[in-house]
């Protein structure tokens, strides 16, 4: 059975925090929970698609060959059970040595002291292998509590025939030529005029706990939602109001289906696959499914820009639990997993994006639709450390419901943009001080 990313999204949508939408992967087999076992065997718990789990098995095999006598026991857990399993083991004091965690859940574990501070375990210069945004996403009080294994980010998938029929004769092919917000609105207006009432120009992938992807609009307006010290709200700004007003207009102008709000149980990708939406924001992880499922000829282009280009920082980190009996072996495994050859092989096969600066500079070649690779890696390069560090806040699991509730009211509940910004600011203050 090949578990697709679409099946993962459907499963992840019903989960409670901190099992937030990871933006990639979902397992289907389990070998029983494994705990830290001693100096020669490492326990590693993860979820993953077939391609991701195959990548991890290859990674483990290579690590064991490079470290004779050492073993890594892989425990593949269904995504629906991943974090309830980890949380129960952490509470019981018998967690695995290593596990995989989304960046916007990472901060919760680091903030509770459940992860190993890797400062004294990593080799000299280790941080230099990663992009600043990736390294910022695994920091807790300026100390590394994990390693950025891979990322993903959202670009625009589009139906070529629909855009051509609406008179959209070209799409951006370089990051510096990406549509501005005004130009995106112009494209949406043309599509709206050319489409029947049952179809829509686009859908945005902010459903469920993917609401963190809304923050891209805020970053594009050169705004923040947290202060630089991450201890208070910063969204009460012209940029915050501008981002809410612009995205609120998607519903008023019927650019998006009414059921495409943040609390919808219908995912944006499915609206695009069905032909209801002619464009959709999505990550590289969608490419294999799109290659099999999407109707007609399709392409991808860069996300739009306002004051600057920006992107969501998706993907996952690898972390070592604070009570690991194998801290040195676990750290060696993280080091090996983020070497250039290993990261390239994993990302290209699993249709994910690298976090190493050298791989970002050189580029990777996705196994499916390799010609699209530069667009995804180019879009990922727009993530700033100041953006990713906010999303990795230890309070993010409490901020996500605040974003959901207030944006839902702004989009489909009749609330004004100013009320939504004020509500988000109030909720963030309660999250970071409570």
Task: Give a brief rundown of this model.
By secondary structure, the chain is α+β, with helices and mostly antiparallel strands. 42% of the residues lie in helices and 11% in strands.
Structural description of this entry:
It is globular and about 65 Å long. It is built from 18 helices and 10 strands. It is 42% helix and 11% strand. The protein has 434 residues and is α+β, with helices and mostly antiparallel strands. Strand 4 and strand 5 form a beta hairpin. Strands 2-1-3-10-6 form a 5-stranded mixed beta sheet, sandwiched between helices.
Largest beta-sheet characterization:
5 strands, mixed
- End-to-end Cα distance: 44 Å
Strand arrangement across the biggest beta sheet: 2-1-3-10-6
* Broad structural category: alpha+beta
Uncertain residue segments:
9-33
Strands, count: 10
Percentage of residues in helical conformation:
40-55%
Mean pLDDT: 92
């Amino acid at each position: 059975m090949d578990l697709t990313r679409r099946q993962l999204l459907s499963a992840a949508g019903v989960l409670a925090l901190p099992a937030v939408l990871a933006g990639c992967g979902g397992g289907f087999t389990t070998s029983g929970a494994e705990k830290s076992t001693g100096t020669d065997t490492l326990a590693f718990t993860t979820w993953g698609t077939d391609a991701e789990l195959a990548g991890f098995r290859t990674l483990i095999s290579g690590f064991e060959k490079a470290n004779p006598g050492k073993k890594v026991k892989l425990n593949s857990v269904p995504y629906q059970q991943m974090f309830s399993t980890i949380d129960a083991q952490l509470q019981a004091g018998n967690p695995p040595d290593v596990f995989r965690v989304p960046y916007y859940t990472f901060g919760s574990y680091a903030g509770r002291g459940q992860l190993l501070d890797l400062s004294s375990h990593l080799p000299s210069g280790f941080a230099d292998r990663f992009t600043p945004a990736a390294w910022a996403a695994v920091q807790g009080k300026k100390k590394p509590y994990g390693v950025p294994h891979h990322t993903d980010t959202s670009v625009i998938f589009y139906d070529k025939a629909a855009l051509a029929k609406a008179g959209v004769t070209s799409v951006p092919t370089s990051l510096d030529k990406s549509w501005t917000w005004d130009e995106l609105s112009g494209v949406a207006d043309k599509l709206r005029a050319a489409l029947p009432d049952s179809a829509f120009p686009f859908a945005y992938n902010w459903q469920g706990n993917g609401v963190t992807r809304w923050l891209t609009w805020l970053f594009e307006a050169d705004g923040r939602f947290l202060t630089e010290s991450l201890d208070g709200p910063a969204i009460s700004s012209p940029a915050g109001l501008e981002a809410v007003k612009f995205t609120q207009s998607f519903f008023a102008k019927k650019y998006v289906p009414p059921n495409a709000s943040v609390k919808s149980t219908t995912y944006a990708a499915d609206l695009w696959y069905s032909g209801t939406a002619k464009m959709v924001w999505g990550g590289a992880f969608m490419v294999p499914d799109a290659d099999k499922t999407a109707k007609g000829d399709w392409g991808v282009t860069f996300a739009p820009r306002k004051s600057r280009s920006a992107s969501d920082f998706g993907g996952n980190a690898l972390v070592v639990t604070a009570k690991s009996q194998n801290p040195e072996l676990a750290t060696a495994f993280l080091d090996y997993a983020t070497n250039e050859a290993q990261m390239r092989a994993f990302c290209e096969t699993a249709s994910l994006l690298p976090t190493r600066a050298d791989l970002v500079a050189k580029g990777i070649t996705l196994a499916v639709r390799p010609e699209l690779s530069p667009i995804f890696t180019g879009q990922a390069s727009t993530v700033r450390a100041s953006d990713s560090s906010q999303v990795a806040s230890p309070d993010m699991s409490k901020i996500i419901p605040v974003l959901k509730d207030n944006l839902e009211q702004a989009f489909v509940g009749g609330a004004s943009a100013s009320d939504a910004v004020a509500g988000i600011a109030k909720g963030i203050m309660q999250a970071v001080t409570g």
